Amino acid sequence: MRPSPLPPIYRGKLMFFDEVLWDKADELLASWKSKLFNQAAIKEMTALIQHHREGIADRLFPPQKGSFNMVIRLCFLDGASTIIRLPIPGYSVFPEEKVQREVSVMRFLERHTDIRVPHILHYGMTDQSPAQLGPFIIMEYIDNNADLVDALNTPGIPIEERPILDPDIAPARLRSVYSDMAGLMLQVAKCSFNAIGCISNNENDELDNERVVKHRTLSINMNELVQVGGVAQEDLPQRTFTSGSEYFLVLAELHMVHLSSQKHDAIDSAEDCRTKYIARCLFRKLAREKRLCRFENGPFKLYCDDLRPANILANSDFDYKICGAIDWEFSYAAPADFVYAPPCWLLLERPEYWERGLDDWTRAYEQRLEVWLEEMVVREDAEIARGVIGEENRLSAFMRESWEKGDFWVSYAARRSWAFDVIYWARIDRRFFGEGTMEDRVALLTEEERGGMEEFVQRKMSEIVDG
Question: What's the whole-model pTM score?
Answer without folding.
Answer: 0.95
